[in-house]
């Protein structure tokens, strides 16, 4: 039997926000190793393909297979409070994929794991300090460094996620030398934002409103921070739109990306540049809350954006890997609905496109069978019951790995033929 193991990371999600890379939970590579160990112990003759998945959040560069990596560099950057952190810059091996509106067979593609720089802390007090005092300056710095490595026809993909920092991207623009310098820097570059989180910067359900649930600051203080960040970000957007073409070349139209543009299976970034227009960006626009609001200003300067799980599926070759399999296995930490652009949704859609059964492993799964079926998922296996009082990750990393290994064995007994 041929089985594709394509799990995402299993991270705890207090208040619905994954704490990816926080030291809690397991990264995708460790999840896939545990599942494979259990399966092989039970059905050693089955052919397993291991394909860990990511969504653009912290650590996404680690799922890119070595054969797809032409070079890897660790770039030092400044964290939210000035601490030194490292992010990976990966240059991918050439492929025939199409990015934007141009065929890029001779250009190079890079991935910057920038989400690691502003990863959401597990400690609400630390997260509160980042919200109150933190800056996105380091994010702009590592983007600038990465762009300096690229050529004019290259594509730089920047992994971004939600953060406790909430300065509206002001720090990032300062690090890039201001709006004019940033616009000139991006004028002949294809800069793509690989978004792990579709949350907007402002609004009732925006990143600012969510600060009260992921940090220890009060709702009133969160609202105050949000008003200030949204005002700063929109000032940047207005200023960017008012800038002339700049020294580097003609002004480009702004790619507008919405969830409706990306509901089908990924097709080598076909959507990345197909949806162009002049719609005005706002703080309520999809995905603008990533990176403390930096995503909003970068898009005003010409960057395009796509759901991270879809981009990462292209980079790791999910579409090719699923062909010829007999079963697909996905995994995620906590599942309360199946997002069409999330890791489980993307893996399920690919399995369904080949009429393959897809099973999901989660720390906790509270999704009905009907919802799972609609997403292409046949069945789900959880480490804890949906209504269990104790956290699924409470026992620690070693016990979590043991439980996943046991589930790998259980899946083999149930599904192998």
From TrEMBL:
Is Cell cycle among the key words of this record?
A: no
Q: Name one Pfam family in it.
A: Gly_kinase
Similarity comment: Belongs to the glycerate kinase type-1 family.
Q: Which GO terms describe its molecular function?
A: glycerate kinase activity
GO biological-process terms attached to the record: organic acid phosphorylation
What is this protein identified as?
Glycerate kinase
Q: Organism's domain of life?
A: Bacteria
Species this chain originates from: Actinomyces oris
């Amino acid at each position: 039997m041929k089985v594709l193991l394509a799990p995402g990371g299993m991270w705890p999600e207090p208040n619905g926000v994954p704490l990816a890379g926080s030291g809690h939970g397991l990264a995708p590579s460790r999840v896939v190793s545990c599942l494979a160990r259990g399966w092989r112990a039970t059905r050693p003759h089955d052919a397993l393909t291991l394909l860990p998945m990511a969504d653009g959040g912290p650590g996404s560069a680690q799922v890119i297979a070595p054969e797809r990596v032409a070079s890897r560099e660790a770039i030092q950057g400044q964290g939210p409070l000035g601490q030194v952190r490292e992010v990976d810059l990966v240059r991918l091996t050439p492929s025939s994929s199409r990015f934007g509106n141009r065929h890029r067979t001779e250009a190079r593609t890079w991935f910057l794991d920038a989400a690691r720089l502003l990863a959401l802390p597990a400690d609400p007090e630390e997260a509160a300090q980042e919200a109150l005092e933190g800056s996105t300056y380091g994010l702009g710095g590592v983007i600038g460094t990465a762009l300096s490595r690229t050529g004019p026809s290259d594509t730089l993909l920047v992994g971004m996620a939600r953060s406790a920092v909430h300065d509206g991207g002001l720090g990032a623009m300062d690090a890039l030398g201001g709006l004019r310098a940033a616009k000139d820097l991006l004028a002949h570059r294809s800069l793509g934002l690989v978004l792990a989180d579709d949350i907007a910067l402002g609004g009732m359900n925006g990143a600012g409103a969510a600060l009260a649930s992921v940090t220890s600051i009060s709702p009133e203080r969160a609202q105050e921070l949000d008003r200030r960040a949204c005002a700063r970000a929109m000032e940047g957007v207005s200023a960017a739109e008012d800038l002339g073409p700049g020294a580097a070349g003609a002004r480009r139209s702004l790619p507008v990306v919405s969830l409706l543009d990306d509901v089908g299976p990924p097709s080598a970034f076909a959507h990345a540049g197909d949806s162009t227009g002049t719609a005005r960006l706002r703080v309520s626009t999809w995905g603008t809350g990533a990176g403390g609001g930096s995503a909003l200003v970068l898009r005003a300067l010409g960057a395009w954006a796509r759901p991270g799980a879809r981009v990462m599926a292209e980079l790791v070759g999910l579409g090719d890997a699923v062909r010829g399999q007999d079963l697909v296995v996905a995994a995620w930490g906590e599942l309360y609905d199946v997002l069409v652009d999330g890791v489980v949704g993307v893996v399920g859609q690919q399995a369904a496109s080949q009429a393959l059964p897809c099973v999901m492993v989660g720390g906790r799964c509270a999704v009905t069978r009907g919802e799972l079926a609609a997403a292409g998922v046949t069945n789900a296996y959880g480490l804890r019951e949906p209504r269990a009082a104790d956290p699924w990750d409470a026992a620690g990393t070693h016990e979590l790995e043991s439980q996943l290994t046991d589930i790998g064995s259980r899946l083999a007994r149930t599904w192998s033929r």
